[in-house]
Design brief:
The complex is a heterodimer of chains A (356) and B (415).
Chain A (H helix, E strand, L loop, with lengths): L1 H30 L7 E2 L1 E7 L7 E9 L7 E9 L21 E6 L5 E2 L7 E9 L5 E10 L6 E9 L8 E10 L4 E7 L3 E6 L26 E11 L5 E6 L4 E2 L2 E2 L15 E5 L3 E2 L2 E2 L10 E2 L15 E6 L3 E13 L14 E6 L2
Parallel strand pairs in A: 1-10
Antiparallel strand pairs in A: 2-3, 3-8, 4-7, 4-9, 5-8, 6-7, 9-10, 12-13, 13-22, 14-21, 14-23, 15-16, 17-22, 18-19, 20-21
Chain B lengths: L1 H7 L2 H19 L7 E2 L1 E7 L9 E8 L6 E9 L21 E3 L12 E5 L10 E10 L7 E9 L6 E10 L2 H5 L12 E11 L13 E7 L17 E2 L13 E3 L2 E7 L5 E6 L4 E2 L2 E2 L14 E2 L6 E13 L3 E3 L14 E2 L8 E2 L19 E6 L2 E13 L7 E13 L2
Parallel strand pairs in B: 1-10
Antiparallel strand pairs in B: 2-3, 3-8, 4-7, 4-9, 5-8, 6-7, 9-10, 11-14, 13-21, 13-24, 14-24, 15-23, 15-25, 16-17, 18-22, 19-24, 20-23
Classes of the chains: A mainly beta (356), B mainly beta (415).
């Protein structure tokens, strides 16, 4: 009798205590923020398009899931300053702001949208729960502002069966990433123009420009007198350069040999003073431009056997920067039978102007 | 009632009777223990004390006490007592001893060629609890203190945690040993030496610790920053490329080695370092990215003076941290390490450079792509230092101006 009474009073007590313990264990495993997921998502990373602190960056988050037995309804990406350990308290990184996040692309399991439960440091992507069939998942999220602090911060990745990022996570994993400063490079390309003129210039070397006097000899009504001089120019001026020819025709006191105001062929027996920048055959004088540059003689001075002399004419032009180019100026002089005797001279000046 | 009264009356008689009984116990206990000598310095070392663990190795080691020849060794495991000759033995729950052994030549007495057997010798419980090692050719010329050392392999520990026992007995012949039983250990022949041992299984202590994902990455300029300095604020802005005044030249190449990076990570599959940006730019003008067939084609090309080239290579600083940092193609030319800072003939050291641009095409993996181009990889490990080497060349028509380029370096670990 005593034994039976004891049994009746103890059984409910045991049931109550057992139920209480079971409930506590269940609550701890389900509700506790310290609950740890069963397995990790693998091969996880977060690739930034911009690592600078405080600036917006695309976050390309990738990972591999291995649990295909439970529907996948949502993903949660939690940014933390303190550590990547899932299930532990998270300190949001200073300045990080994911409130403006949107999905740029999805690879693998798709059909997600940004859930309204997302916060400043948590991005929840949700969809109707579906059994996952893809292992490798990649999501590009744009509109996330990096932490304002320089250095390491963390991302925690969670997968859920529910469609709103709640309940126990299926899989999870942490990622460490870092902000870093950009490196600015600076260098200067100075403007320059190289120009020289001389009777002769050896190669493309202005240091050899050292002779400046030409003797045409004795004029004749039967033969064209010829001479050459050379000039070299180069510039990196974006709008190129011009070379102008300034001077007068051949003059002796108040007597002159007429300058060719328009392109004209050489005519012995006719008073002519002209020039061009090409190789000529009538008479045989001059050379074509040489060198890697792209500048060229202007039209009136760019036709073989056609000569002209007009002061302040542009004789060379380049619309863009031009590397070194050497020009040979051919001069011709003819006289008629009435040309008064005398010593005829002129000084020709070449002026180069770069257009930066 | 009568008996009770009897006890109460002559208390002295009762005490005397008890003392008489106590004095008889030694006589009763020693009945089955013959004149064996106690084994010296005996032990059985378990490779695992986990309850019910399988495949456990028991290393049996003892010193013989007698000089008699030995032709057999018996080890019996009991749950209740180690006393030699005790006729009760309970097999420890789930305990099973095997008939395999190893390293029998570890002691002074070489038993490696002896034959092993396993059997059940118990009064309660089931399972082989007795290991017998015998030889037809007994070991001779023994001296007291000689050691016997062998390992019983493939043992299944008792499933209960706590103490259990072993009894070790030596015999002069295999016949004597094989005649061992719990009821009469000397059924065929006498023991020579014997001794008991207490063993124990225990719950395993599980120690859990977490190693969190880690990456630290630092880009900096200047030579004074320690390789493991995490202060990334030491970036001189901007880095100058050119002569002492930062002017590029069409005659001599300009090399910048001012910028470096440090990285350490524990990412299981390592980390990649990417460079993102564009070539040198001044307004609408650019210095062409270096290229083989076309500017910025990503193909290695040597420095050529009087041509527009902005190129890049990188190498691991052998004096900065550990190995594990590997520049990736095409930014990994072998001569990169021999380049010389500054502007001058030969500063490029015949290095070939690259700078892959593709206009930021969709899915681009170029330097001007969304995430930049991979320039190096780093395996999990301590700090490594990378040196960023930039080449600048111009031609005679490179438009004048202040040219700048902003480059981001992005480290991404894959865990």
């Amino acid at each position: 009798m005593n034994v039976r009474t004891k049994t009746k009073t103890d059984r409910p007590y045991i049931v109550v205590v057992s139920s209480l313990i079971a409930t506590v264990i269940l609550l701890i495993s389900v509700v506790s923020p310290f609950a740890v997921s069963a397995t990790n998502v693998l091969s996880r990373f977060n690739q930034l398009s911009n690592p600078r602190p405080g600036e917006e960056s695309i976050n390309r988050i990738g990972f591999t899931v291995t649990d295909f037995s439970v529907p996948l309804g949502s993903l949660r990406f939690e940014f933390c300053e303190n550590n990547p350990i899932t299930g532990t308290p998270c300190t949001p990184p200073n300045g990080l702001d994911a409130s403006g996040v949107s999905i740029l692309s999805e690879t693998g399991e798709t059909g997600f949208s940004v859930d309204s439960s997302s916060t400043v440091n948590e991005v929840v992507l949700s969809r109707s729960p579906v059994l996952p069939v893809q292992a490798d998942l990649v999501y590009e999220l744009q509109g996330i502002i990096n932490p304002s602090d320089l250095g390491t911060y963390y991302l925690r990745i969670y997968t859920y069966e529910t469609g709103d990022g709640t309940g126990p996570s299926l899989q999870s994993g942490g990622v460490a990433l870092t902000t870093s400063l950009e490196v600015d490079f600076s260098t200067e390309v100075p403007p320059y123009i190289t120009f020289c003129a001389s009777v002769t210039i050896t190669g493309l070397d202005c240091t050899t420009a050292s002779t400046f006097f030409i003797n045409l000899g004795e004029f004749s009504t039967n033969t064209t007198r010829t001479a050459t001089s050379q000039m070299l120019a180069a510039t990196n001026a974006p709008n190129g350069y011009t070379i102008r020819m300034n001077g007068t025709t051949l003059t002796s006191g108040n007597q002159t040999i007429p300058a060719l105001a328009a392109r004209t062929a050489s005519q012995p027996g006719t008073g002519q003073f002209g020039a061009n920048l090409r190789a000529n055959t009538a008479p045989s004088v001059g050379l074509n431009p040489v060198g890697p540059g792209t500048a060229s003689p202007t039209t009136d001075y760019n036709i073989p056997n056609q000569f002209k002399f007009a002061s302040n004419n542009v004789v060379v032009n380049s619309p863009v920067g031009s590397d070194t180019r050497k020009f040979t100026v051919s001069y011709i002089a003819n006289i008629d039978g009435d040309q008064p005797p005398g010593i005829y001279t002129t000084t020709v000046q070449y002026i180069s102007l770069a257009n930066f | 009632m009568i008996f009770s009264d009897f006890l109460r009356r002559p208390t002295a008689l009762a005490v005397a009777g008890l003392m008489l009984l106590a004095s008889a116990v030694p006589i009763l206990v020693s009945r089955s223990a013959s004149a064996y000598t106690l084994l010296g310095d005996r032990e059985i070392r378990l490779s695992s004390s986990e309850a019910n663990a399988a495949g456990v190795t028991y290393r049996v080691n003892f010193e013989i006490a007698s000089t008699s020849d030995i032709g057999g060794i018996v080890v019996t495991f009991c749950e209740n007592t180690p006393i030699i000759g005790d006729t009760s033995c309970t097999v420890p729950t789930d305990f099973v001893v095997s008939n395999t052994f190893a390293n029998g030549d570890a002691g002074d007495v070489d038993v490696s060629t002896w034959s092993a057997a396993a059997s059940e010798e118990a009064t309660t419980g089931t399972g082989n609890n007795t290991f017998t090692l015998t030889t037809a050719t007994p070991a001779t010329s023994l001296a007291a203190g000689n050691s016997v050392d062998f390992e019983i392999t493939g043992v299944n520990n008792p499933s209960d945690t706590g103490t259990f026992y072993a009894r070790i007995m030596t015999y002069g012949s295999n016949t004597n040993a094989n005649g061992y039983t719990i009821a009469d250990p000397e059924a065929v022949g006498a023991m020579i030496d014997a001794g008991g041992i207490a063993l124990s299984t225990a719950d395993l202590i599980t120690i859990e610790a977490k190693v969190q994902e880690r990456i630290t990455f630092c880009v900096y300029t200047g030579a004074t920053t320690a390789y493991d300095d995490t202060d990334c604020s030491a970036v001189t802005d901007p880095v100058v490329l050119g002569d002492a005044n930062g002017v590029l030249d069409s005659i001599n190449p300009s090399i910048s080695k001012d910028a470096k990076y440090n990285i350490t990570t524990n990412a299981s599959t390592g980390a990649t370092i990417r460079m993102k940006g564009d070539t040198l730019t001044s307004g609408s003008f650019t210095v062409d990215a270096i290229g083989d067939v076309s500017p910025g084609d990503g193909i290695l090309e040597p420095s050529v003076t009087n041509s527009e080239q902005f190129g890049f290579c990188n190498y691991r600083d052998a004096g900065g941290g550990v190995a594990g940092l590997t520049p990736t193609a095409p930014y990994d030319h072998a001569n990169c390490v021999t380049t010389t800072q500054g502007q001058g003939a030969g500063n490029d050291a015949s290095t070939e450079f690259a700078f892959f641009l593709d206009g930021g095409a969709s899915g681009s993996t170029a330097i001007d792509g969304t995430y930049g181009d991979v320039i190096a990889s780093k395996t999990a490990g301590d700090w490594s230092t990378g040196v960023l080497v930039f080449l600048g060349n111009i031609d005679n028509t490179t438009e004048p101006g202040i040219y700048t380029s902003t480059l981001d370096f992005i480290a991404t670990g894959r865990y």
